[in-house]
Amino acid sequence: METATETISHYTDRVSVWDHVIHGLLPHHCHEGAGEPCPTRPASRVAAYGLSSHIVVEVIERLSDTSIAVRWQDATRCRYDDQVWISCRARLKGRCALSGLLIRRDDLIYKPRVRSTKPVNAAAMMLASAIDRMPVMAEEADAY
């Protein structure tokens, strides 16, 4: 029979192993730095909103010359499978949820469209230049 100390030690070892496995599966956090992209994933899948590793962003399609459809998966807050984002100018400084690059005031961006209820990710932004550089988006932009 195990003593209380052995039981606690065994439990602690299991927790640290599990922690190690989970942290090995998660992408590393982006480093703060002006204009530095997150190096952990390709640009089309980088999750940089709030520099959180819990978020996966994917641009699904270009709906028009001023709107796109986005799949936004945030393991801690929300999930949108076909969210419409619209183009505009940035009002605040932030980070591109797609590339991790710094967004400055007045940069061309895309943001979630707000209707009757404000989406949880309403403060998120993506640089229009990051979207235009995506091969699929560039081809679709030529069609408009």
Helix content: 25-40%
Strand neighbour order, sheet with most strands: 1-2-3-6-7
Q: What can be said about the biggest beta sheet?
A: 5 strands, antiparallel
Mean pLDDT: 77
The H/E string reads HEEEEEEEHH
Q: How many DSSP E strands? A: 7
Name the overall outline: elongated
The termini sit apart by 73 Å
| Radius of gyration computed on alpha carbons | 19 Å
Query: Beta-strand level of the residues, as a percent range?
Result: 25-35%
Backbone structural class:
alpha+beta
Low-confidence stretches: 29-34, 38-49
Task: Summarize, please.
This protein has three helices and seven strands.
Provide a descriptive summary of the structure in words.
About 12% of the residues have low confidence. By secondary structure, the protein is of the alpha+beta class. It has a domain of 95 residues. A five-stranded antiparallel beta sheet has the order 1-2-3-6-7. Strands 4-5 form a two-stranded antiparallel ribbon.
